[in-house]
Amino acid sequence: MSAQLAESLVQSVDWLAIAPPTIAAAVALVVLVADLFLPEPRKAVLGWVSVAGLAAAALMLLPLLGGDRSTFCLTGGTHACSYTADRFTLVIQFLVLGGALLAALLSVTNLDDDRRRVPPGEFWFLLLSSAAGAALLPASRDLATLVVALEVASLPAFALVGIRHGDKRSSEAALKFFLSSVTATAVSLMGISFVYGATGTLYLTQVAQRLAHVDGQLHTLAQTGVVLTLVGFAFKTAAVPFHFWVPDTYVGAPLPVAAYLSVVGKAVGFSGLILVTVVAFPSYADVWGPALAVLAALTMTVGNVGALRQRATRAYSAVRLLAWSSVGQAGYLLVPIAAAGHAEDPQKAIGSTVAYALMYAAVNLGAFGVAALVGRTRSANRVSDYRGLYATNPLTALLLAFFLLCLAGLPPGVIGLFAKVTVFSAAVDAGLGWLAVVMAVNVVIALFYYLQWTALLFRAPEGEPARHRVPAPLTAAIALTGVLGVALSGAPQLVLRFAATGLF
Asked: What sequence ranges are listed for the domain NADH:quinone oxidoreductase/Mrp antiporter transmembrane (predicted)?
């Protein structure tokens, strides 16, 4: 009898399902150990091993396209699993691993230029570890695994922000990022404990079933738990009022790390937010739906106004402008999630967020790639440093103009326009007309600073124009994002088809 019970508790592991995050984690350990034995002149190979590892992890998504796979499941009649590789998981993992791969290409060049202050072994270990946690999160289907994945993605990111030795600005940015994130995580953990106390389970599907029939005496406890749980994920998405860490962190971090946080960090926050709201807390949509709608309106407004105000500062930093822009973009990403709380078809609304995230990832990484190029000769990386870029690097200037027009939602950046229309439609279909109006106003506000930066690229340069040599890894990163953006602008409907999540 005991032998049969023990056998029933043994769970077989689906190694193919967990391959993408596992490969990233394994390569991280390989890089860390290899760093101990490689002589200093040969440590550049660690970067290419990391790039190859991320590419291999991304390629392992292909065998998973055949159907949903789950592992680490409860035994017995109850079907609840901790890890599920469904359509939603694969799309977010593609975004995360693709974004990490492009950030790694940017980092190869950055480390060559800044090797004295950035230890390569530690850098690549931290980047791969964070990417492994980010790839694990969308597959998590219980609250414990979700929080572990969130912290595995976040803790290495704190160290990456402050990894430059002797850089006070980098250390200050890392400290701000760390303290605010730890506080948000503590609040979120308290919320999860309340949810567990009210439902007696951590599995998302079981939480959804039991919250709908929670005892009246536990209703307040459950409602408080739902609200507190959302706080941690709202922080990761840089939603207002949890956005204050973003500008200083992006400016203080090495530029590839800022690019990584702007895309992969957001993917972590938004995928976690989708899982806890739509999958775990659908019965409390009347709580989180209106709350996220208000957060979306505040976030896009504060982000775009903050970006607009950067013009008044003496050091009109391109990276700080992109940081405030990313806050505004986070507001647009929140709109369909809020709409899912009011819509008859939450699946379609969530697909809009995922589609927008894919567009944003490609063009925002491209913009950071051009910023990395200009930063090689202009360390301050002010917006004024981009004046006359077309005269010295015509193709790079055209690509940056394309990326900025995509973010603004203007032709020829058709994919940006398509993504914004999709998000706008999700708000209208859910009856959130006021939020659609706020979004339309913010799109107009954003046009001003995006178009101003774009126009600057084609003005006559002041003084002797700087010549920018483009290293091969940086060329590859910019070219990949450019090709992806142009291809998707030619066939924008492919994004929605690819982003069909299949969460239900």
From this structure: 140-445
- Contact between 24 and 50 under an 8 Å Cβ cutoff? The reply is no
**Token pair in block for residue 101:** 């791969």
Q: Tokens in use for 19? A: 């391959």
Q: Please say whether the beta carbons of 390 and 398 come within 8 A.
A: yes
Q: Are 486 and 402 in contact (CB under 8 A)?
A: yes
Q: What is the pLDDT along the chain (504 residues), one digit of tens a residue?
A: 344 434 444 467 888 889 999 999 999 999 999 988 888 778 888 889 999 999 999 999 999 887 788 888 877 656 788 898 888 899 899 999 999 999 999 888 777 666 557 788 889 999 999 999 999 999 999 899 999 999 999 899 988 988 887 778 888 888 888 888 888 888 889 999 999 988 888 888 888 888 888 887 788 888 888 888 888 788 878 888 888 888 888 888 888 999 999 999 888 889 999 999 988 888 888 888 898 999 999 999 999 998 888 765 555 788 888 999 999 999 999 999 999 888 777 787 888 888 888 888 889 999 998 988 888 777 777 888 888 888 888 898 899 999 999 998 888 888 888 888 888 888 888 888 899 999 999 999 999 889 988 988 888 776 665 566 677 888 888 889 988 888 888 777 777 777 665 554
Strand pairing category for 81-85 and 69-73: antiparallel
Q: How far apart are CA 323 and CA 251, in angstroms?
A: 8
pTM across the whole model: 0.91
Count of positions (residues) in the chain: 504
H/E segment holding residue 23: helix 19-37
